[in-house]
Amino acid sequence: MKPLTENHLLDFSSLTGREVEVLLLLASGEQNRRLARHLGITERTIRAHTASIVRKLRLKSRFEAAIVAHLHADRIKDLGTTTTHRSAAAA
């Protein structure tokens, strides 16, 4: 079985700022309800963000997304900081 990152490169730049936040929280293994409360959004929105993350990163599941978040947390955090600065500059 190949490592999940070996088949393709992970392009985190396609994620929105909120998707980056959700992706990082997925690594905690918490349920959608707790993630939603933490971010002040609905569980349905968490599910939508998770589905978008899985699609954009060409993963197979939320579980794989959580593993990717854990393995690449530093890269993702750096991207989240960059995304936040870009959003603030655009406003």
Describe, in plain words, how this protein is organized in 3D.
The chain is mostly helical and 91 residues long. The chain has 5 helices and no strands. It is globular and about 30 Å long. The protein starts with 16 loop residues before the first helix and ends with a helix.
Features:
91 residues, mainly alpha, 66% helix, globular
Quick overview of this protein structure:
With 91 residues, the protein is an all-alpha fold. It has five helices and no strands. Helix 1 (17-26) runs antiparallel to helix 5.
The helicity comes to 55-70%
The whole-angstrom Rg is 13 Å
Average pLDDT: 85
Instruction: Please give the number of β-strands.
Output: 0
Distance between the termini: 46 Å
Molecular shape: globular
- Total of helices: 5
Low-confidence stretches: 85-91
- How are helices and strands ordered from N to C? HHHHH
Q: What portion of the residues fall into strands of 2 or more residues?
A: under 5%
Q: Which structural class fits the helix and strand makeup?
A: mainly alpha
Largest sheet: none
